[in-house]
Amino acid sequence: MSQHIYGIFDYHRLHQQFLHTIAYDALVWTSLHGLLVGDKSVQRSGSVPGVGLVHAPVALFPTPFPENHWREACELAPIFNELVDRVSLDATFLHDSLSRTKKADEFTSRLLDIHSMMIQINKKEEIRLGLHRSDYMLDEKTKSLLQVELNTIASSFASLSNLVTELHRYILSCHGKLLELDSKRIPANDAVNQYADALAKAWSEYNNPRAVIMIVVQAEERNMYDQHFVSALYNTHNITTIRKTLTEVDQEGEILPDGTLSVDGEAISVIYFRAGYTPDDYPSESEWRARLLMEQSSAVKCPSISYHLVGTKKIQQELAKPGVLERFLDNKDDIAKLRKCFAGLWSLDDSNIVRKAIERPELFVMKPQREGGGNNIYGDDVRETLLKLQKADSQEDAAYILMQRIFPSISATVLLRNGCWHKDHAISELGIFGTYLRNKNKVIMNEQSGYLMRTKVSSSDEGGVAAGFAVLDSVYLT
Ligand SMILES: Nc1ncnc2c1ncn2[C@@H]1O[C@H](COP(=O)(O)OP(=O)(O)OP(=O)(O)O)[C@@H](O)[C@H]1O
Ligand SMILES: [Mg+2]
User: Where does the Glutathione synthase substrate-binding domain start and stop, copy by copy (predicted)?
Assistant: First the structure.
């Protein structure tokens, strides 16, 4: 980055009074436009809409990102969509890759059990819907765009990311002259419309006009407005939504003789999971029964159990091994593009890598098979955990993978949280949404569908917004 460009993006140079005015405008804008989450300090804010709302944590200004890498990330979306679909059909690959993990990780084991049952009853998913988000960081030293992970279940922030883009365009259209920034350099973000469109199209492929879309939710969800924006949009096509927890699906659900899932008397065409990705969502057998019931039904599942398994960290690591992508894709250019964005990924049965990670733990991230943020291991904890696992000499090491740590460049950002702004040094992670819908041999949608920029203070290892580590952001193309 040239000195001049860095100068423009050094938001810390801006005067306190100016920042104060912009923060005030931003707070008004978020309230008027629904860039909101439930407020932790209000008890019912996660269960009753309209109660205890607070603006989502956001960056006050967009973060610079090189246009060529931006395009690279966008181009990868349809290729990853196709890859997920192909891998999901290869039951042998999924079970072989996850066989050691199964012994060490109870959660993955339960998911695999459901998958095995579906194979036994020869269950086929003809209509397949994927709402994915592939996350990347730009490694500063190598100037390469590297994938952090691919989410195939409950990919969040399609709606709020859309709004942050609009917020930043608004701020730049009011104050761009002073900032020397042009709002047109913030790429359009249509994630929420595309997610709603994909769900509506899946509903129409199912072809039962009386059936509804069911969103499977957590009992407490402070990020509920992100979900409601999506359903509000497809509801305009006269599609009805019901929201149910896994526990409720167990209590109210049944499969009718023709395979239709009925919940509380409603026929379900599409099941959109915004829960079910963490063991916490399955406190008893009831929730597992619900997951199995849904999987057995004819409803379109977003995701199906096999799409869910493709999104595990272990599968990400297996796909990065030499020769594996070739098993699923034919196009050499596509394979090369995917491989280029793979960071170093290793299984813990690779003793050379384990030794290296014990020597230089700061160069690695250790990941269990978990989603939702806050589960990864960094720094000296990597060394400690690896040594402990070596001593125990058990199967437990199969619960983890090791990943090359990516080091993005640090920017001077202004964060807005809980009505207060503050300056900090931060790194950013770019998520690209992807939508995929097919019915048998017909691919109905395979698109890149908007983006999510997340920015977190550079002293924090984890990146989750809901988990409280990061803020929502947008991209300023350089
Ligand atoms: N290889 C890496 N190098 C640097 N940071 C990383 C790496 N892998 C993960 N992180 C950081 O940790 C965060 C969480 O990692 P990851 O996305 O793998 O976990 P997750 O629990 O699936 O999160 P999510 O809720 O986003 O799905 C990332 O957003 C990123 O900030
Ligand atoms: Mg994830």
Answer: 211-310
